[in-house]
Amino acid sequence: MQSRKAQTLRAASLIVWDEASMSPTSQLRVADRLLRDVMNAYAPFGGKPVLFAGDFRQTLPIVKRGSRAQIVSATIRHGVYWVSMEKYSLERNMRADGDQPFADWLLQLGAGSLNKGLEYVTIKVGAVSESFACLLDFVYPRAMSLNNVRDYAKHIVLCVTNDECKNINDQVLLHYTLHV
Fold it and tell me: Does the pTM of the predicted model rise above 0.70?
């Protein structure tokens, strides 16, 4: 209770919990109990305002060998805290950058309405690169300075798993080592 972390929690005027949609409701119970203890208060989360941010159309909590129903029931939407939360939604898709057909396609993808209930999605022609080399040339154009790390930090290839990320990183390094 006297640690530096406890003092920091007491001094905080807001706690931001990003990617909350990935957090199982059990994590909220732990955080609630901790904050109640640290703040010596009975109010939820010790009376601290907590901003939960996340998109439930993205990655949900991991439930080892869990069924779809078990995974969904582990989300904070099915926990006791959900009913007392104020909910807000963002209205503008910044990633689509004004491309309304792409923004609509992303919303349909997230809602599961693109695939008519099947477990796969057909991606439009032109949205998939012809080869890995073409993808790299698109994400990391040759005009970028190899010496300017900031240029590269602004471009990314998203991966689902750490293994996939390592594989792509290795291929990127190999690609640019061979072609520079």
Answer: no
